[in-house]
Design a protein that fits this description.
heterodimer, A: 634 residues, alpha/beta, Rossmann fold, seven-stranded mixed beta sheet, B: 73 residues, alpha+beta, SH3 type barrels, 5 strands
Amino acid sequence: MSDTILKNPKIALVGNSNAGKTTLFNALTGHRQKTINAPGTTVSVETGMWKNKELIDLPGLVSLYHISPDEEIAANALWSDNSRHRPDLILFVADAPHLSRSLYLLAQIKHSKIPIILAISMADLLDKKGLELDTELIREVTGVDEVVLLDARRKVGVDELESKVNLTLQKSHDVNSATQVISGEDVRDWAKKHSDEHFKWASDVQNTLGLHKLDGKLFTYWLDKILLNKFFGIIVFLLIMFLIFSATTVFSSPFVNLIDGNLRDVLTSGLESLLQNTPVVLSSFIINVLLESLLTVSQLIPPLFFMFILLAILEESGCLTRFAIVADRAMRFAGLDGRALLPLVLGFGCNLPAISATKALQDSKSRTFCGYLIPFTLCSARLAVFVVVANALFPNYAGLVVFLLYITSILLVIFVGILLNLFNKLKGKEQQEKMPFIIPLGTYQKPLLKSTLHLCAIKIQQFVLNAGKMITIVIAVMWVLQSTPIPGSGKSFAEVDKVEDSVYGVVAENISPIFKPAGFGDWHISSAVITGFLAKEAVLGSLANSYAIDDVEDETEGFAQNLRQTFSSSSEGEQGLAGAAFLFFMLAYTPCLATVAGIKRELGGKFALKSITLSLGVAYIISVLIFQVGGIFV
Amino acid sequence: MKLSECKLGVALHIESIDLSVDHCRRLKELGISQGTDIRICQNCVFGGKVISKGTELLGIDAKLANAIEVSYV
């Protein structure tokens, strides 16, 4: 082994899902972590620095006989000589109350010949019950290099872990054994061939350690009797969903309004007076790009904060896996399991935290599937646009129109889910018989405020750093387009007053014919559609700006008249159909920039492009169908 | 008898599992196989069940509960 391994050794966290790997990873790396996608896949792997050591949080693994892309990445990282994630040391994480569940995987991992430290997490749960695990006996019986008992949430045992990791790395360096692997054979074939001996080893270890004697002492039956009750389970589940939905939308809205209202006004006027003597281009860039980006990202933090906190509480407490059982049957329509319902329900509040919530799904297939469906859920930002536009175009039926849009949103999620399933079947991705639903349920734990807030801070920091960059770049591009005057307008850069005098206006004018088949091929509308890509709330502002109206709320009738006139002229008098086509287009077309940035962060850039294409395609087809087919009957 | 037909709390012994070899292997990796002693802890909505095996709890759906043949211990 080369000396570089001791300078920056690579340590992989390996274990079953919900064994406590990520909690330990967060405790060890703190804010020094990032998410990367495994090459050519949407499987995300978390990496981070623990002092001089590189930690890799591999996807949860039941066995080296992998059955999902996530498991395949983890299995190959431990198996293949040339995997970029191949570690110098394995931190095998097993949770104390369910140690026997991890033994079969440990039996397989032992053959990788990589040094192993068995980190037994959630040791506090054993202490509370007055139970003990003999670490020395476990080490002898299992043959791992070291055993450490941990309570990662309280960082108990972390110092001992560090000294044992250093010791083991030093030993492995001395004996020069860490890079020996059994290679040249497919990991699944190997796992299958040796399964009997591994099962026997796991069973023998379990008997020697007396793990079966822990029978029934750690259960919290009474909570399961409520959460999983045959009759009340669904009601409790829906109630908790409603609370999360409210918290991410209603509770966060005062903070969002504060940022978007008072803070925006104060900062804008402050900067305007401060930058009075600076060139217009510079002051415009600072206010319209830098400040705008800062405010856009800041507005996203409150809903994300509530969302992350509540999700962390649900996850840490052990409730999230229970909900998966309750919602399982309902999610079968889209080939997903029960865990997918939570992100989809949250999407109706805001798509962005919903995308973040896909993180809780345990395999990449479910995450990508949900990623495709979430943009079709009607978020509250679109609702604001629908209310104003529906009131302007359908004053007598505005309520009914908005209600129909909600129903359409739910139907779209189901329809696109079924379509994607069919597509996967045609491509041969779903030929195997589906595995029946089985999910290990963790022990209930009281969430800790400190660790929950810490986790929340890490996630928000990651979001701001990743999504913030993309948001700033797109806002800057929009600013350049809006600030560049068309030749002959007599204006100079950054001094354009009217949208139609800018390159942005020309772009909107040029793309407007695309929407002609849907009845809204007009530059006012196409300009609003482009702006809606930034944020759906901005659609109204863009429309008002194009009509030279300062405030939609103050000039409701003028705004409505202009809008009716635009739709009437673009559709040759069929303003109702064109308006309906526009509303349905707004419902389905690409989500806001922040959500796209979230999709890119969670599922990768390629997937974000596919998602945008799907949303745009579905939106366009629906709007054209409404206008063209509707025209036959009207 | 099938697991789906059993009462809550009774100790049961798995006699057989009527699934493909690969699915049976995954269940065995999760601790559920022929010869395992289990107990139903909770009947859930849509025929799902929570079963216990030692200190472990597992949630299963109606399809799996129908595929597991058990006898009383």
